[in-house]
C-alpha cells in the first residue's frame, strides 16, 4: 500500500515536471597545473559559465568534482579512476592533452562513463580509437586545418613552406592542411618539424623558409612556442615578403597580446574567435569577460559548449551514464561558434571554421573574420561503433 | 639555397647569438661549480626569474629598467639562497646538493606561477634595438646583434678580471686548490659568496636579455637547464675558456644541425656530449689540468 502511494506520488511529480529533479555529478578532468594550466583554467571558467547559463533549463542540479591531470597521463588515469569508482560521477568532461586522452580512453570506454572532450584534438580519438562513450565538443586536428588549405589555394597562393613542432598534433595539423592544399593545386615546397618544446630559437628554420622560394609560410604552434615564433618571424622582417598563415592557435586570443605588434597581419583559421558576429557569441563574450576579465578564447568556448551539450542531453531526458552517453551523441544547437552538431558516426563535432586576421584594434589586438568556411564532417578514419539507440 | 653565402652568414649569426645566450648562463654555473664544487641545478630557475622580473619592470619603466635591475634582483635572491641554503649544504656532498637544488627548481617554478600566473608574458624590443641592420651582406635583427655584442663584451670583461686582476688570481687559486688558497690567507668563503652572486646576476641578465626574444613562461628555466649543463660538460668545469668553447660548440652544432640534418637536430648535440665524455671525460678545457 505504502509503496503504491509512493509510486503514485513519484508518477505525479514526474508528470508535473517534465525533467525530474535529478542530481548530475560531473567530473572535470583538467590540467590546473603544468604547461597547460592556462588552458585548463579557461576551459573550467567556460564550463562553469555554461552550467550557470543553461543549467536552469533542466530540472536537474549539477555538482562539479574537479581533478587536476597535471598534464601527466599516469596521474590523469589515477584521477579518472577516482572520479569513476569513488566519486561515482555520471559524466566526465575536460582533457586538454591528447596524451592524457589516450591514457584514459580504455578506462572510460570500459567503465561506460560518458566523457565530453573539451580540447584534445588528436584525429584517432574520433577515428580508429572512437568510443560510443566519448564525444568531442572541441575540434579534431585535421578538421581545423583542412578548410584552410582549400581557402589559401583559392587566394592564389601557389607555394607554401610549412613548420610545426614534431609531435602527433603538429603532424596532424600540417597533414590536414597539406592534403587539401595540394588537392586544390598548391605545392608544398618545404616542410620542417622542429623538436617539440625544445626549440626556443626558430632563427635557423626561418632562414630556410626564406630561402625556399615559397609564396607563404603555414605553421602550427601553440602557447609559449607560438609567442616566440611569431615574434621571431617578425624580427627577421619576413612578414612583408613571405606572409605568415597558420592554424589559429598561433594567434589565440589567450596569448596574442604577448605577441604584440608582431602578430598584426597574420592570417589563421580556427573554429572560434571572440569577434564572431552572432547573438549567442555576443552574450557569451559579455558574460565571460564579466566573470573573468578576459576575452574568451577558443578554450573557453569549448568548456562553455561542453557544459551546454551536457545540459542538452539532460533536457532530452538522459539521467544516467548509459542514457547520457547516448543523448550526447545526438546533441545539436546554435552556439557562439554557429550551428554545432555531433556526428554520430565518429562522435566528433561538426562546426564551421573561421579564417581571421589579427589586426590592431582599440585596446590591443583583435580578430577580423575574413571568411566563414562551411562545416565539414571528418572522414570516419576507421571508427566502428554501435549506432545511436533511440 | 645551399650555395647562397648570405644564407650561411645568417645561420652563422644565429648560431653565434644562441652561443652567447648560453654563455651568459653557463659561465656562472661553471665557475660556481669549479670554485665551490657545488652543483646548482636551480641556476635555470634564476634565469627564468630574471626574465620574469625584467618583464614586470619593463611594463613599468621600459626595457632598460628591466635590463639593468633584473640582474640586481636575481643577485639578491642569490644572496638569500646562499645564506639560507647553500652555505649549509656546502659540506654535505654532491647527491644532497643535487637533490636540494633540484627541489628548488620545482619550488621556484610554482612560485613564479603563483606570482605571475600561467599565461606567457612578453617584452617588446626597445625602439633603439628594433628593426634590422645590414651586416656582412645580410639583414639581421638588431636585437640579436645586440645579444652577440653583449656576450662578447662580457667574455672580454671576465677574461680581464680572471686573467689580469688580483681577485681573478684569487679565484683561479681557489678553483685550483681551495685549501691551499685558504692557507695563503685568501678568504675563500667570501670569494665563494661574491662569485655566487655574480653568477646569479649573470643568469638574471641572460633571462632579461632572452625575454624579448623568446616568451617568458614558468618552465623556461627547465628548458634551458639541459643545454647549459651540456655546455659546461663539453667545455670542462670551472674555466672561462671551457664555457666559451662549450657555448660555441653547442650553438653551432644546434643551429647547423637544424639546417643540415633536421631529423637529427635534437640527437646531434647529445651524441657529441657522449663522444666528449668517452674521449675526454673532463671536458675540452677543464680548469684543473
UniProtKB/TrEMBL annotation, chain A:
State the signal peptide span.
1-21
Which Pfam families does this UniProt record tie to the protein?
A: Peripla_BP_6
Ranges where the Leucine-binding protein domain occurs: 24-359
- UniProt record, GO biological process: amino acid transport
What's in the keyword line of the UniProt record?
A: Amino-acid transport, Signal, Transport
Recorded hits in CDD domains, A to Z, give:
PBP1_RPA0668_benzoate-like
Q: Which family does it belong to?
A: Belongs to the leucine-binding protein family.
Q: What is this protein called?
A: ABC transporter substrate-binding protein
- The organism encoding this protein is Thetidibacter halocola
Q: What is the lineage of its organism?
A: Bacteria, Pseudomonadati, Pseudomonadota, Alphaproteobacteria, Rhodobacterales
UniProtKB/TrEMBL annotation, chain B:
Example GO biological process term? Answer: amino acid transport
InterPro entries in the record: ABC_transp_permease, BCAA_transport_permease
Q: Which UniProt keywords apply?
A: Amino-acid transport, Cell membrane, Membrane, Transmembrane, Transmembrane helix, Transport
Bilayer-crossing regions: 20-39, 70-86, 98-123, 143-162, 191-214, 267-287
One GO term of the cellular component aspect?
plasma membrane
- Location in the cell: Cell membrane
Entry-linked CDD domains: TM_PBP1_LivH_like
**GO MF assignments:** transmembrane transporter activity
- Tell me what topology the record assigns in the membrane: Multi-pass membrane protein
Stated family: Belongs to the binding-protein-dependent transport system permease family. LivHM subfamily.
Name used for this protein in its record? Branched-chain amino acid ABC transporter permease
Amino acid at each position: 500500500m505504502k509503496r503504491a502511494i509512493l509510486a503514485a506520488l513519484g508518477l505525479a511529480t514526474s508528470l508535473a515536471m517534465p525533467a525530474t529533479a535529478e542530481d548530475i555529478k560531473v567530473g572535470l578532468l583538467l590540467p590546473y597545473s603544468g604547461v597547460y594550466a592556462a588552458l585548463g583554467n579557461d576551459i573550467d571558467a567556460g564550463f562553469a559559465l555554461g552550467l550557470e547559463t543553461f543549467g536552469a533549463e533542466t530540472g536537474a542540479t549539477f555538482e562539479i568534482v574537479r581533478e587536476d591531470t597535471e598534464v601527466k597521463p599516469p596521474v590523469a588515469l589515477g584521477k579518472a579512476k577516482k572520479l569513476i569508482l569513488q566519486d561515482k560521477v555520471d559524466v566526465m568532461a575536460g582533457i586538454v592533452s591528447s596524451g592524457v586522452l589516450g591514457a584514459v580512453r580504455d578506462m572510460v570506454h570500459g567503465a561506460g562513463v560518458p566523457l565530453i572532450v573539451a580540447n584534445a584534438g588528436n584525429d584517432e580519438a574520433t577515428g580508429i580509437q572512437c568510443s560510443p562513450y566519448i564525444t568531442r565538443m572541441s575540434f579534431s586536428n585535421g578538421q581545423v586545418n583542412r578548410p584552410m588549405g582549400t581557402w589559401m589555394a583559392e587566394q592564389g597562393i601557389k607555394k607554401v613552406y610549412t613548420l610545426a613542432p614534431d609531435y602527433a598534433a603538429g603532424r596532424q595539423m600540417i597533414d590536414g592542411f597539406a592534403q587539401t592544399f595540394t588537392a586544390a593545386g598548391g605545392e608544398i615546397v618545404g616542410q620542417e618539424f622542429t623538436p617539440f618544446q625544445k626549440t626556443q630559437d626558430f632563427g635557423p628554420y626561418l632562414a630556410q623558409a626564406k630561402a625556399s622560394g615559397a609564396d607563404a609560410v603555414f605553421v602550427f604552434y601553440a602557447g609559449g612556442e607560438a609567442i616566440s615564433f611569431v615574434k621571431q618571424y617578425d624580427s627577421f622582417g619576413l612578414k612583408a615578403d613571405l606572409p605568415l598563415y597558420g592554424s589559429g592557435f598561433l594567434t589565440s586570443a589567450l596569448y596574442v597580446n604577448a605577441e604584440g605588434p608582431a602578430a598584426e597581419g597574420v592570417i589563421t583559421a580556427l573554429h572560434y574567435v571572440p569577434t564572431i558576429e552572432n547573438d549567442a557569441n555576443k552574450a557569451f563574450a559579455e558574460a565571460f569577460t564579466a566573470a573573468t576579465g578576459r576575452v574568451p578564447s577558443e578554450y573557453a568556448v569549448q568548456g562553455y559548449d561542453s557544459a551546454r551539450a551536457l545540459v542538452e542531453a539532460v533536457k532530452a531526458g538522459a539521467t544516467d551514464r548509459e542514457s547520457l552517453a547516448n543523448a550526447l551523441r545526438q546533441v545539436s544547437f546554435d552556439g557562439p561558434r554557429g550551428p554545432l552538431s555531433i556526428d554520430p558516426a565518429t562522435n566528433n563535432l561538426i562546426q564551421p571554421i573561421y579564417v581571421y586576421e589579427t589586426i590592431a584594434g582599440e585596446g590591443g589586438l583583435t580578430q577580423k573574420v575574413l571568411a566563414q568556411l562551411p562545416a565539414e564532417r571528418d572522414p570516419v578514419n576507421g571508427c566502428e561503433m554501435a549506432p545511436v539507440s533511440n | 639555397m645551399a650555395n647562397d653565402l648570405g644564407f650561411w652568414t645568417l645561420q652563422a649569426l644565429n648560431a653565434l647569438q644562441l652561443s652567447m645566450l648560453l654563455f651568459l648562463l653557463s659561465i656562472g654555473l661553471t665557475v660556481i661549480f669549479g670554485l665551490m664544487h657545488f652543483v646548482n641545478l636551480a641556476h635555470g630557475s634564476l634565469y627564468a626569474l630574471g626574465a620574469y622580473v625584467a618583464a614586470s619592470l619593463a611594463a613599468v619603466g621600459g626595457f632598460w629598467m628591466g635590463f639593468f635591475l633584473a640582474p640586481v634582483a636575481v643577485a639578491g635572491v642569490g644572496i638569500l639562497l646562499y645564506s639560507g641554503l647553500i652555505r649549509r649544504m656546502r659540506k654535505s656532498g654532491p647527491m644532497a646538493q643535487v637533490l636540494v637544488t633540484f627541489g628548488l627548481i620545482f619550488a621556484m617554478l610554482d612560485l613564479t606561477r603563483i606570482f605571475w600566473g600561467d599565461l606567457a608574458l612578453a617584452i617588446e624590443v626597445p625602439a633603439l634595438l628594433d628593426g634590422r641592420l645590414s651586416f656582412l651582406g645580410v639583414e639581421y635583427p638588431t636585437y640579436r646583434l645586440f645579444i652577440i655584442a653583449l656576450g662578447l663584451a662580457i667574455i672580454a670583461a671576465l677574461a680581464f678580471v680572471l686573467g689580469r686582476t688580483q681577485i681573478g688570481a684569487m679565484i683561479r687559486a681557489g678553483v685550483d686548490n681551495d685549501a691551499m688558497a685558504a692557507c695563503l690567507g685568501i678568504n675563500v668563503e667570501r670569494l665563494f659568496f661574491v662569485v655566487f652572486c655574480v653568477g646569479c646576476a649573470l643568469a638574471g641578465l641572460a633571462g632579461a636579455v632572452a625575454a624579448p626574444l623568446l616568451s617568458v613562461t614558468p618552465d623556461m628555466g627547465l628548458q634551458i637547464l639541459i643545454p647549459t649543463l651540456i655546455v659546461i660538460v663539453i667545455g670542462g668545469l670551472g674555466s672561462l675558456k671551457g664555457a666559451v668553447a662549450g657555448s660555441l660548440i653547442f650553438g653551432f652544432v644546434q643551429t647547423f644541425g637544424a639546417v643540415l640534418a633536421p631529423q637529427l637536430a635534437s640527437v646531434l648535440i647529445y651524441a657529441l656530449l657522449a663522444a666528449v665524455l668517452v674521449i675526454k671525460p673532463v671536458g675540452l678545457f677543464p680548469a684543473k689540468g
